[in-house]
Amino acid sequence: MKKLEGKVAVITGGSSGIGLATAKRFVEDGAHVVITGRREKELKEAAALIDSNVTTVVGDVSRLDDLDRLYAVVKEKHGHIDILFANAGAGTIAPLAVATEAHFDQTFDVNVKGLFFTVQKALPLLRDGGSVILTSSVSNVLGLPGFSAYAASKAAVRNFARAWTLELKDRNIRVNAMSPGPIETPALETTTGLTPEQARQAAAQFASQIPMGRRGKPDEVAAAVMFLASDESSYITGLDLAVDGGMAQV
Amino acid sequence: MGKLEGKVAVVTGGATGIGLAAAKRFIEEGAFVFIVGRRQEALDNALADLGANARAVKGSVSDLTDLDRLYAAVKDEYGTLDIVFANAGAGSQLRLGEITAEHIDETFDTNVKGTIFTVQKALPLMREGGSIILTGSSAGTTGAPGMTAYSASKAAVRNLAKTWAEDLKGTGIRVNVLSPGATATELAKEALGEAGQKVFASMTPLQRMADPAEIGAVAAFLASSDSSFMTASEVAVDGGLAQL
Prior knowledge:
The complex is a heterodimer.
Chain A lengths: L7 E5 L4 H12 L3 E6 L2 H11 L3 E5 L5 H14 L3 E6 L14 H22 L3 E10 L12 H20 L6 E7 L6 H4 L5 H14 L8 H12 L10 E4 L7
Parallel strand pairs in A: 1-2, 1-4, 2-3, 4-5, 5-6, 6-7
Helix pairs in contact in A: 1-8, 3-4, 4-5
Chain B lengths: L7 E5 L4 H12 L3 E6 L2 H11 L3 E5 L5 H14 L3 E6 L14 H20 L5 E10 L12 H20 L6 E7 L5 H18 L8 H12 L10 E4 L7
Parallel strand pairs in B: 1-2, 1-4, 2-3, 4-5, 5-6, 6-7
């Protein structure tokens, strides 16, 4: 039997990168996935790639109304959630000296507030014994110039996993953070505000800082998320699982 | 198909507890496993349990000639090695004030020196795609009465993986630490008794001790390509014990 046979999974930020790779992996392993993202066209294309057992809901995790709509769809279609992958994130690069209020607010609205309410609003549908996975980042323990708001927001996410582990333990719901290092996703070029040339240079520089000598692939992160979603990690909770080629470990 | 199909693995401390559970899981996933342990009777029992895809080598990881015999046996039969689970460990408790030189030597000989040479002597047989897993402990990050030697030795193990990820750069061999919390091995159940088991369960956010098979499942994850972008990581399998 497949590891996630018949399970219902919700994935935010599911239209590209890590979220999309994970949605594909979950479906291959027997799950039904509901993916959400802000851009309808990308979301539809993602659903076409995933092919089967996928539902899309357009929405922004930083808008509470959108989250309500998301979970209304999940409730109507499946009635419950087994796995929640709170993965949507934002990360423009801005050095302290020039960062704007809008930059700060956007980062924390999506990464912290959005993730907080993504989980809170899922609770009524989450089955006892379920698994919640929060996308943090290696930057939760690393200093990187230009990433201060992002890094702080991801440290907040890592700490959500600690408190929620205790708050949800009586329902036997496990909560873990997962911290990717630099991954070969479109995000570096599309969301950070870098030019293609700057993105290429940043990618090369990241690779030089990673003991494995390369960036990760979305499928490699998906495999780790799959591990946290399944019973293979039944005794793991409150953890920050680094999937970073060693970048923040040495 | 299993996720370790055709792989060859060494599991030290493999006759009982976490090592045996991991060996069992590796075999279920398609691997051939060499288990190492000091007691012949325990090895015999383990082999009876593990079936045809296992061999036993009697020896102590703190004895370098035993390690040489182990890897000679692996080389003779398979020529290469994909997975090393350096899991053998020792841990008696003495409070500060009572610590003896023998106690420190015994703990560090097995947990630190033994782990270092278990891995160093395996390297000539390993190749790209190989995975090394070191058994750490939640005690490596937390303090507990009487655990001076044990917790220091396990903190050392966690740090070995950091250096080795750099030393192994370019080889395609990954190294990670698996740090169990309170695990209901036969040995632990006997040592703790009913009351002690309840104490450990109540200290743990998940409110129970681990089944050794749950640790074995994580070892299989770290051994397999599912963890292909992980190196130098510590994966705590502790029900949240040392995470909050």
